[in-house]
Structure to design on (252 residues):
């Protein structure tokens, strides 16, 4: 654990991912973990996963609650499978030993939201969709005072947001919107009815950067949609602008 902290892993979690069939050995592992934790700041001490052995559901709940930087387990294979189902990759979403500061490997590809919607008004504060959980983690799309649509991303530690150009929302009209969060350059872009937002006359650029410290904005298990949203497609990669334009031309 000490070597891991030297490489930047501050919050290390512990779990029995398989049956603790050797209690003497297992108790030593757990005891060593708890003893090492006493050397670390209180904020970096994470409770071990209470379920023994852990199953997929309890792992997701525990992981989402404590948000560890690294994991120690007695069997790696099920943990890797659970992380993959959660959209996390190892070691790609872990630390990069080639970096001088042992920071994150930063190979996330991003995602895109493709939706058709029709709102009765352009009033600000309308929620088109959201996946926020009780702790505010997740993502959500809301309307702004300029008739734009803003995406907000929150991972429990860091929050980032960016908005489309003005007049994205036209009352009573069906609109197509693609929001792309590109994990490579850390850029958010909007394509509205097949046109890339370029900032118009109000802004120099239509795209915006989000924090490099932002992790996956995993929130509630189910996405909530406004009644005005007639279609939603979620891509687990960043769409090209040409693909977003093609989706608009293909129609609803």
């Amino acid at each position: 654990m000490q070597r891991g902290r030297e490489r930047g892993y501050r919050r290390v979690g512990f779990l029995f991912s398989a049956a603790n069939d050797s209690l003497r050995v297992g108790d030593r592992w757990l005891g060593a973990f708890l003893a090492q934790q006493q050397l670390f700041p209180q904020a970096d001490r994470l409770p071990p996963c209470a379920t023994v052995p852990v199953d997929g559901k309890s792992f997701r709940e525990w992981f989402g609650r404590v948000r560890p930087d690294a994991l120690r387990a007695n069997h790696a294979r099920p943990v890797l499978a659970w992380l993959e189902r959660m959209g996390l990759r190892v070691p790609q979403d872990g630390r990069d030993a080639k970096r001088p500061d042992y920071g994150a490997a930063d190979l996330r590809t991003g995602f895109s939201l493709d939706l058709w919607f029709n709102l009765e008004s352009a009033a600000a504060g309308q929620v088109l969709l959201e996946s926020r959980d009780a702790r505010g983690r997740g993502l959500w799309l809301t309307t702004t005072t300029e008739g734009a649509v803003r995406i907000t991303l929150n991972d429990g530690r860091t929050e980032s947001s960016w908005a489309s150009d003005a007049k994205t929302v036209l009352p009573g009209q069906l609109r197509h919107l693609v929001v792309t969060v590109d994990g490579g350059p850390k850029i958010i872009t909007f394509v509205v009815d097949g046109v890339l937002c370029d900032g118009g006359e109000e802004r120099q650029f239509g795209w915006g950067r989000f924090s490099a410290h932002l992790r996956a904005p995993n929130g509630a298990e189910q996405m909530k949609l406004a009644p005005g949203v007639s279609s939603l497609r979620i891509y687990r990669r960043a769409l090209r602008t040409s693909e977003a334009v093609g989706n608009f031309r293909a129609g609803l």
Remarks:
- The radius of gyration is 21 Å.
